[in-house]
Structure to design on (351 residues):
């Protein structure tokens, strides 16, 4: 039977280790463990003797990982850094990292196993603190961005309106085709600038929602007034109307972004279908386009602020959509084949 009781120096090192240490017999049962192991797991040492270690104390969903890791110790003689969640006696859980090695007697026969575990709680806490710190930095940046966007909106939109009006005036007073063509290009560029300004302001200045009953058909028709749809792109709306509780102005932001993105992706030809479905608790509204699939590398980051694959994009449009849906207690998701953005709105919100 493996034991360290006969060697005082080893016994001192065994007990003084900051890691969890346990000695197992050939069947995997604990025959000894150090104080740190018992303390971390919330048992008395006497209670742990005879338990299958560390399987009896592994969170059920991770037991296959622990079993596979121990089998590699048996097969290879050693195995390092197997990560799984452990369960304490009081049923609380914590992350751990285990290694193991075979113990041999003087004749080279397998006598048992030594397993060592690290409690990763402190590391996990540090990771969480770093995440919180990064989030605070983001919040501070977006706060500054909000102040800047408010100033830019005031300082840029007024001159833009003046330019728009003068371009329209030129179009009304000339029949010169080249001049009209230049005017259309100017208006297109102005629209691009205005959309980027709106993306920023929509993201950083989303106010508290004001819920009221709205017609889905009316919301979509109002949205289409803000989107320039090429003649060869067809828009299919839901056949039936549905009443939903939402903030009209914020839902129009979502639909405008989703439909505009689909139009940009399709170019001059294609189809956009807007479909409605529901469950007992939610409204499901999908915007489906006939364009190319979204690349796999884009999918995990598509709703991240400032992430964009467009040369002239802000990366805030879909992030704004996500913020609006979170404010409504709902969600937004995307999938391919075909490209489908689905928003989910809860039905139980009071208008």
């Amino acid at each position: 039977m493996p034991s360290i009781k006969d060697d005082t120096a080893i016994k001192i090192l065994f007990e003084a280790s900051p890691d969890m240490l346990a000695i197992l017999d050939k069947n995997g049962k604990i025959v000894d463990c150090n104080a740190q192991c018992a303390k971390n797991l919330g048992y008395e040492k006497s209670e742990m003797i005879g338990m299958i270690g560390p399987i009896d104390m592994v969170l059920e969903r991770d037991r296959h990982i622990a079993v596979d890791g121990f089998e590699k110790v048996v097969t290879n003689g050693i195995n390092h850094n197997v990560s799984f969640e452990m369960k304490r006696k009081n049923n609380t859980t914590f992350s751990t990292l285990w290694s193991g090695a075979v113990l041999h007697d003087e004749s080279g026969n397998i006598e048992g196993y030594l397993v060592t575990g690290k409690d990763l709680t402190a590391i996990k806490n540090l990771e969480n603190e770093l995440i919180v710190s990064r989030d605070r930095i983001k919040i501070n940046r977006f706060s500054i961005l909000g102040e800047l966007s408010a100033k830019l909106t005031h300082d840029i939109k007024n001159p833009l309106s003046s330019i728009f009006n003068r371009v329209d005036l030129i179009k009304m007073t000339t029949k010169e085709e080249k001049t009209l063509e230049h005017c259309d290009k100017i208006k297109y560029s102005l629209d691009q600038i205005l959309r980027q300004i709106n993306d920023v302001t929509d993201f950083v200045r989303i106010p508290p929602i004001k819920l009221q009953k709205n017609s889905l058909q009316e919301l979509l028709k109002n949205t289409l007034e803000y989107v320039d749809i090429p003649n060869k792109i067809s828009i299919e709306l839901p056949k039936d109307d549905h009443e939903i509780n939402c903030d009209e102005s914020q839902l129009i932001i979502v639909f405008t972004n989703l439909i505009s993105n689909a139009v940009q992706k399709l170019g001059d030809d294609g189809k956009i279908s807007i479909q409605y479905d529901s469950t007992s608790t939610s409204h499901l509204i999908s915007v489906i386009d006939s364009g190319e699939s979204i690349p796999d590398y884009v999918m995990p980051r598509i709703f991240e602020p400032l992430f964009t694959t467009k040369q002239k994009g802000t990366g805030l449009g879909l992030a704004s959509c996500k913020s609006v849906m979170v404010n409504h207690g709902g969600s937004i998701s995307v999938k391919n084949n075909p490209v489908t953005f689905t928003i989910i709105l809860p039905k139980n919100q009071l208008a």
About this structure: The chain has a mean pLDDT of 85. The radius of gyration is 31 Å. DSSP finds nine helices and twelve strands in the chain.
